[in-house]
Amino acid sequence: MAAKGRELKGKGVGSSMTRWRGPLWGSVFFLAGALLLAGCPKKPEVQTGGPGAMAGDKMTKGAPIREAPLRPGEKPSALKDVFFDFDKSVLRTDAKQTLENDLQWLTANSQVRIVLEGHCDERGTNEYNLALGERRAKTVRDYLVAGGVDSKRISTISYGEERPFVLGHDESAWQWNRRGHFVVVK
Amino acid sequence: MTGLWRILLLLLVLWGGMPPANGSAQVDITVTRRAVQRIPVVVVGLQPLQLVSGGADLAARAESILKGDLEFSTIFEVLPPVFLPFDSKEIRLGEEKKVLPSLNQLKVQALVAAYLTKQGKDLVLEGRVYNVPRGAFVGGTRYFGDVKALRTMVHRLADEVVFRLTGERGVASTRIAYASVERGATELYLMDYDGHNSVLVTGNRSINLSPRFSPDGKLLAYTSYRDGNPDLYLLNLETGRRKKVSALPGLNISPAWSPDGRWLALSLSKDGGTNVYMMGLNGKKLRRLTNGLGISVAASFSPNGRQIVFTSDRGGSPQIYVIDVEGTNLRRLSFQGDYNASPHWSPRGDKIAFISDRGGGSFQIYLMNLDGSGIQQMTTVGSNEDPAWSPDGRHLVFSSNRSGTKDVYVMHADGSGLKRLTRSALNNFAPNWSP
What we know:
Chain A has helices at residues 59-62, 93-108, 126-146, 171-177; strands spanning 17-21, 28-32, 82-83, 114-119, 154-160, 179-184. With 186 residues, chain A is of the alpha+beta class. In chain A, a hairpin with a 6-residue loop joins strand 1 (17-21) and strand 2 (28-32). Mean pLDDT of chain B is 92; it is low at 7-35. Chain B is elongated, with a radius of gyration of 23 Å. Chain B is mainly β and 435 residues long. Chain B is built from four helices and 29 strands. Chain B folds into two domains: 2-166, TolB, N-terminal domain (Rossmann fold, 3-Layer(aba) Sandwich), CATH 3.40.50.10070; 175-433, TolB, C-terminal domain (Neuraminidase). Classes of the chains: A alpha+beta (186), B mainly beta (435). Chains A and B meet through helix 3 and strand 5 of A and loops of B.
């Protein structure tokens, strides 16, 4: 992997909508998906609750910016990230639903190779979180391989808590940072 | 990087100009582990010195650094000049003996006379140490360097005072490595133990983590994503040469040095799970210590090199375990709370520092005995992580978000003497104290 150059600082805030079940509040959030990386917007878009945010949910006041550094050669895809509970690497029900759609897309686009990034929220130690992120990435990989994706198409890497998707110090940020993130590289 | 090498070169030059601080130096005052009484000491001399008229008084600066070092050591109590029956600035080079009787009446144990003068382009700092009850000269050193080296020269003198009076190695000349988040990158830095003279050591614009000094202080082990994967590197701090020592598939993280400097413990995920391994410095002789599909990270050696304490979630949540370096005799040490991590074995061998979340979602630093008993809470404010001992076991460095951002702090091993070392808009963390 040739990641020695300067980071491309693209903002991964696109316009696609992802259905995601918030575990703590039991409500359904709509959020602007991070994954339709249609080019590289020049300015970060500030999310104020997302287009479909329900009144009273935590997203309406936090308005955190989400960002994901682009990898060199990264391509747009319809793959959606999956999110985890604190200190857990088991797939939640909503994550499995997301992965079923991801599986369909990967099957339809069988030439595509992906990197699965494992990420954590800022709580806990940096070193433990590197291992936890690794386990999350491998959990997602194993699910996809069990679903028929050739394991040679998937590589994994953990960034622990070092590359937060949302900057912030409460659950409104943390919920986005505990994730398995798809990057299409070929 | 050039700033770092200039400082290293300067240190070498200074080192060459110093008389060797050998082991045969007279030890006058025995300090025991349990001693809570500090040694009363008086600092005299340091007549004002300005390089240009109206410039800063370098002697006053030196005095402040010296007294700060001596106080921070927890060995000395520096008596304020107001308690003295004479003007501390009036004492001239060679006149020190005449004040010893009056200091003895005040129960002062030690006198440090320091003088700062200019000689050509150099500053000369001369330090003389006296044992007051005996009325005897204990030793002294003269340091040469330019004005930029003043802090370094004074730290050397402070360590000389500690050594002459206690036989212990002081920490005033030590440094602290840490990670610092910058825009889009996490870089490693070194700074003096008091937070001054910070220098960048990585500068590759990727993620660099877990800096760990070798026992001789010459090498820095760390994890870097500079080539994409979290690989383990050794950086020679004298030559600047960098060597990739472990680049196995998956994680190559969380290094720890064996006390003899010949082995690294590290965590690898190549075999499924993340386990602790031992490895030679050339990356060879790899040997697995822990087993299973769980997470085992954050190894720290006992001072005798026989055991390793580490964090593992093998019991369902992150807890602290100890294992013999042969990979046998695994025991769990922590039982309270759902998240105990970051163990660091005291260089004195009797305590393990660690962090624990015992409610409220924030981490605090604790100490425990080697069997898990005798737990002492060391912090209460904010969330505190990454505890690491000073080489003399008298202090702890750690990171804390108590002021908003994560920054590096130090405190004494009894929890007193808190001092903030870094300040920036972004996070500073993962401190490690040099020998």
